[in-house]
Amino acid sequence: MKIKLISYQSPNDEFPPLIKKLNYIQPLAEEEIVALMKLHEYSAVIDEGTVFLEQGDIRDRSFIVMEGWAYRYSSLENGNQQVINYYLPGDVISPFALVMPKVTYSVATTSKLQVCVFEPDCLIKLFSEYPRLALLYGWMLGREDSSMAEQVVRLGRRSAFKRTAHLLLELFHRLKVIGINDENFFHAPITQQLLADTLGLSIVHINRTLKKLQKEGLINLSKQKKEICLLDIEKLKQIAEYRIYYLDEIKNLNTTNKSSLADIPSRSNVMQ
Amino acid sequence: MKIKLISYQSPNDEFPPLIKKLNYIQPLAEEEIVALMKLHEYSAVIDEGTVFLEQGDIRDRSFIVMEGWAYRYSSLENGNQQVINYYLPGDVISPFALVMPKVTYSVATTSKLQVCVFEPDCLIKLFSEYPRLALLYGWMLGREDSSMAEQVVRLGRRSAFKRTAHLLLELFHRLKVIGINDENFFHAPITQQLLADTLGLSIVHINRTLKKLQKEGLINLSKQKKEICLLDIEKLKQIAEYRIYYLDEIKNLNTTNKSSLADIPSRSNVMQ
DNA sequence: CGCTAGGTTGAATACGCTCAAAGATCGTGG
DNA sequence: CCACGATCTTTGAGCGTATTCAACCTAGCG
Predict the structure, then answer these.
(1) Which of B92, B100, B243 is the best substitution to test chain A (most A C-beta atoms within 10 A)?
(2) Tens of pLDDT, residues A96-105
(3) Does B199 touch chain A if contact means CB atoms closer than 8 Å?
(4) Alpha helices (H) in A97-130, listed in sequence order
(5) Is there a contact between B147 and B246 (Cβ–Cβ < 8 Å)?
(6) Residues 142-171 of A with CB under 8 A from B
(7) Is the pLDDT of residue B257 over 80?
(8) CA distances from A10 to A88, A116, A123, A250 (A)
(9) Helix intervals (H) in chain A
(10) Are A90 and A136 in contact (CB under 8 A)?
(11) Mean pLDDT of chain A
């Protein structure tokens, strides 16, 4: 797939979601933000329902999601698919593109997707000038690792009911960090088929499970607009055995950890 | 858990498995190997069946497995466990320790485990001197990402039979890279209970599945010594839809990718 | 207005689970 | 050296969660 690049203009003076996310866990210096904007120079818009990275492709670019959702998946011979993870605004698609230019899993969009595109070389430059950003990037990778680990636990050892509740909570939480949801509902541009493929269930069963969650007063789905409303977050967390802390909480560690992010100078004094 | 450190002595002049693994995908320069040995200064031995990292702990060390197996897992309220991934010789436990000192998932040993222990600060020094090693470390993280993604696919969309075959093939392959298995069999220090917890199955069912694999002449288990013999690797791969390439194969990319690992000077000329 | 994609429901089936009990294997201590 | 307990493996039987198949419904769009 050929992607047409245009220059990126951040809308109404807001920071791009990646910066929001990083700033959420570790307040950024002015110059770090400026430096991060270098990853946001070129953008592209990709239609809904497009496979824009295909297993086996050689692609040495990374993408930052600005708006919309994408997902990484694997197709099996019998036509089944398994969604591995979602890319929400602020997430980096192909974070290892520099060292693993061969795409191992396809990536597709669930909605119109706006991304910024950068060459991984930019990262190297960025990191050598701002080593703390390298660590923050590492934090982000670690967070994605945890998130995928949780997907393993969901699929391996949770019932359909708990699985579904758990996923909805995670999506809600991730959107909250970048500030694009309200008190208790969010816009989820996904079909039940995709949910089924995420949770390793059949479409029939995910439909029944969602119905059950609604009947029990735990969630509310507004069909047309694809809004999901979590009616009783505490109860959902309890049902799903949802542990929030795998997603953030580097914040309070600065004092307990001798070489924490806060101690590292944001600007390197290495001579180039 | 308190871990007692001793100095590390590599046995009979062999390279440590991490170096073997990195060298396998990208031949290392002499001085890079020397530098990597700095991560191997201190070692520790941990008994079989020990939980040595516990969810919630604050630990800012990383570990390199020298010998034996460990695994990362999550415990649920009903007593069930889900294994997320295995750490085999050459694998790094807690690769994100510097930026995520809070342990998100417990790690335990399946056998007597010898590890080398390093402070993540060492990594920073290492990477600033030898930037290519930073990329190789990144490659390793990307590989682990793929491996966990495959675990998601196994659990979500494969039958017990295919799942089991697939996992055995992956373990076999990973051991092969570090050169500790023979033509078609390997030593796997795991119980059926652990296999069940890895594959999201009950112990009864994993037992029956292994029996079926044996009956069909695909594998052979020597109970006492925990050796697993793959009798027909090609057929197993076909059954499991096993795709090897998510595990290695950076090798041949040097020509197609303009900023490949091979092009990057092994020694940085950055002034410290 | 009719087509298509997505959502809903019922019924039969199957894969994998739970419960239960018995066999192996190994380490330990008498 | 054997007996005992602990851990792991094996097997049977009944059950339940989730699947498959099939049909119908609904909303959006040309």
Answers:
(1) B100
(2) 998 888 999 9
(3) yes
(4) 120-129
(5) yes
(6) 142-146, 148-153, 155-158
(7) no
(8) 17, 11, 20, 27
(9) 17-25, 30-36, 120-129, 131-157, 160-177, 192-199, 203-215, 233-240
(10) no
(11) 88
